[in-house]
Design brief:
Structural class of chain B: alpha+beta
Strand order of the largest sheet of chain B: 1-8-3-6
Largest sheet of chain A: 10 strands, mixed
Radius of gyration of chain A: 22 Å
Shape of chain B: globular
Oligomer: heterodimer
Largest interface: A-B, 8 and 16 residues
Helix content of chain B: 25-40%
Strand content of chain A: 15-25%
Number of helices of chain A: 16
Distance between the termini of chain B: 29 Å
Order of helices and strands of chain B: HHHEEEEEEEEHHHEHHEEHH
Distance between the termini of chain A: 24 Å
Chain lengths: 465, 248
């Protein structure tokens, strides 16, 4: 059983530093430029050689949006020119063909995620076409074990689209809501009447989606405790299987769209903290379990069960119940991981198109993890997924390792976190406390070898809160 | 018979040999040492030609139809032997682990009847076969050992000729690998499969996906645990029972 998070504003303020989200270790900024296609091919082909090769997980990035939400920090292209999507899909088709040649056909795709941008910028026919391309190149699972999800903008979805998505294999959907307050919606350029969202979610359930998720954001302009509480109340009424509550990171110097946001309308640091506290306390009272980072789920949800049985995973698609997959990323800026090899695609459409038109995989960055990286990734994964590290578990998987000796420095640095009540440390384990749960990445950061100078990375990562 | 102390020192207990000491796993050490032949003596008799390698994975030790003049003792890594037919299809004939001899099947007609390729970073000792054969006439122990090894090769090759199920073949393969590692002093229940699943499938005359499907079922049934290339036999007795018609 996981310890419930305790909202401690004083502690959260003290530890409000920027830090990675650890969907990978090392994190994407540490991938090396100029990583050759041949190296990736070698790792991909070798991944077929294991006695039981890992199953596959696929991510497809759809970068287009019909209108700009001002808070957004994603890699996206705002356009109303629908022919852009056609051009893009042609290139994705080429990328799928090239990648599909690298993987044995008996390796099932058990996880698929469409993210953006706005995946439903594509219309039903285009989404159908995309699934056919994937089915042509890969062995997509058909059974209930499959986890095929799509991020949906409720403003561009209707019952027919949801039926079509279910028919082509999707069984999970996450809906962007952010906040139901029309006054906040106006400030972020995302007018989305609550009735519309309710209708789309009920369409998803009628269409047979087995999991529905809602994304909220706190720290947006004009947000108040009362307004956000009303939003959370409404969300609890919808009773989605999962809820994500993200922190808004205002970095207008990095994300152009955010320059449209009036800084003076942003909540103060104290109010922002209270917004988080409101969400944490209301969701707990409504019976939601805290998974970690920004994620909450109903007790019957697979994520909660996976956490109880210690099989929860964390990868580029967030928290997942699936054992380690090889992850293939398609589309502009997409990240993949095959075996010990990370790769990232070109981040702009021009370079992405040019590579594919030249018959090349559009890789621009990559990294091959070292044994030390693997060890640290295991520790960070245990902290992020299960809130604790049993030294013996790690030692068993890394023969010859003496955890307290190898991590003597890290354990010394745990002392201040112990004093502040974030963790409890003894000679055989590190356990994150209820007070520490909302700060789990602060604990994980202690094991991050790439964070020698965390103060210099203020703009590279979002803040913890 | 207990070898004399001086001979014991001629095996490097840490595993890999050198100019004088045999590797701990060497197929020749147990018959040569009791007779007073250490590696230096073998070299003087021109039996031991050279230590070769390390070879990178995918290097050829010999090719089919090359003149047969030597046998190779694997010191570290692994080797597969195979044939390629006129349509380019490969047929895997066997796998050789540390301590095992590759190339004995070239004795007649003095050409290698198959090719041999390293599967991993591999080091070998190359023994001159004519010199070894001459030595064997003076040392019955060596002759017996050579006959034993040749006979084992033939038996192993004929095992797969029968009409066995995929489960039987894979169980026999896993138990066989475990026994071979155990003979050389390695763990009898945990080992690393150095060969790709395509090679295993080819060797067992099964489809690649069948190998994974059966192994996954063995794993679901609690017989084995597979993590990437590492295999642990959780129920070796059950696997042995499953493989009994092949192993006999």
């Amino acid at each position: 059983m996981q310890i419930a998070p305790i909202f401690d504003p004083e502690l959260l303020t003290r530890y409000d530093v920027s830090g990675p989200r650890y969907t990978s270790y090392p994190t994407a900024p540490h991938f090396e430029a100029g990583f050759g296609e041949d190296r990736y091919r070698h790792h991909a082909l070798a991944s077929n050689d294991d006695p039981i090769p890992r199953p596959l997980s696929i991510y497809v990035h759809i970068p287009f949006c019909a209108s700009p939400c001002f808070y957004c920090g994603c890699n996206r292209v705002v356009t109303r020119d629908r022919s852009k999507a056609t051009e893009y899909l042609q290139r994705v088709a080429g990328e799928i063909r090239m990648q599909s040649e690298l993987f044995d056909r008996d390796r099932q795709v058990i996880q698929l995620h469409l993210g953006g941008g706005t995946p439903n910028y594509l219309d039903a026919d285009q989404l159908h076409e995309l699934m056919e391309m994937l089915r042509g190149g890969f062995n997509l699972a058909r059974g209930d074990e499959r986890e095929f999800s799509i991020e949906l903008d409720p403003r561009q979805a209707d019952p027919a689209l949801l039926d079509e998505l279910a028919a082509i294999g999707f069984n999970r959907a996450s809906f962007g809501v952010q906040d139901f307050d029309p006054y906040v919606q106006a400030a972020i350029n995302r007018i989305q009447p609550i009735e519309q969202t309710l209708a789309v979610i009920s369409s998803a359930r009628n269409a047979g989606f087995k999991s529905v998720s809602i994304d909220l954001i706190y720290g947006l302009p004009r947000q108040t405790i009362e307004g956000f509480a009303a939003t959370i109340d409404a969300v609890i009424g919808i009773r989605p299987d999962r809820i994500a509550v993200y922190s808004y990171a205002h970095l207008p110097e990095v994300f152009r769209a955010q320059r449209q946001i009036e800084s003076c309308e942003l909540p103060t640091a104290a109010t922002k903290l209270q917004l988080l506290g409101t969400a944490v306390n209301m969701l707990a009272a409504a019976g939601y379990s805290y998974i970690g980072m920004d994620h909450f789920a109903l007790p019957g949800d697979e994520l909660v069960r996976a956490q109880e049985t210690h099989t929860l995973q964390r990868n580029f698609q967030g928290y997942s119940t699936h054992a380690e997959c090889d992850l293939l990323g398609f589309g502009v800026s997409a990240i993949g991981r095959v075996g010990d090899c990370f790769v990232q695609n070109a981040r702009d459409l021009l370079s992405y198109y040019a590579a594919i038109d030249a018959g090349k995989l559009p890789l621009v960055k990559g990294y091959v993890v070292t044994p030390e990286d693997q060890l640290r990734a295991a520790v960070i994964q245990a902290l992020m997924c299960h809130g604790s590290v049993e030294f013996r578990d790690i030692e068993q998987r890394h023969p010859g390792l003496d955890f307290p000796c190898h991590f003597a420095d890290e354990l010394r640095r745990m002392a201040s976190l112990t004093r502040d009540g974030l963790v409890e440390v003894d000679h055989k384990s590190i356990r994150i406390t209820g007070r520490g749960r909302l700060l789990m990445r602060v604990v994980a950061m202690v094991f991050d070898e790439y964070l020698e100078h965390p103060r210099e990375q203020v703009t590279r990562f979002s803040r913890v809160i | 018979m207990v070898p004399p102390l001086s001979a014991m020192r001629a095996i490097n207990p840490d595993g890999d040999g050198d100019g004088i000491a045999f590797c701990a796993t060497c197929a020749f050490a147990p018959v040569c040492l009791p007779q007073g032949f250490d590696k230096g003596t073998l070299a003087d008799l021109h039996c031991l030609i050279e230590h070769v390698g390390p070879y990178a994975a995918g290097s050829k030790l010999f090719e089919v139809d090359d003149a047969f003049d030597a046998v190779f003792a694997v010191r570290g890594g692994a080797v597969k032997t195979f044939l390629v037919d006129d349509q380019g299809r490969e047929q895997v004939l066997g796998f050789y682990l540390p301590g095992e001899l590759v190339g004995l099947n070239g004795v007649y007609p003095a050409r290698y009847p198959c090719s041999a390729m390293t599967l991993d970073t591999t080091t070998v000792c190359r023994f001159s076969f004519p010199a070894m054969a001459t030595l064997a006439t003076r040392m019955p122990g060596i002759q017996q050992q050579l006959f034993r090894l040749m006979s084992k090769d033939i038996t192993q090759a004929s095992l797969l000729a029968g009409d066995f199920s995929a489960d039987e073949r894979l169980a026999a393969f896993l138990v066989g690998m475990a026994d071979r590692y155990a003979t050389r002093g390695f763990s009898a229940t945990r080992f690393r499969l150095v060969m790709s699943r395509a090679d295993i499938a080819n060797y067992l005359r099964l489809a690649t996906e069948t190998v994974s499907r059966v192994l996954r079922r063995f794993q679901d049934d609690g017989l084995i645990v597979v993590e990437r290339r590492e295999v642990e036999l959780r129920e070796p007795a059950k696997l042995r029972h499953l493989a009994r018609s092949i192993l006999r």
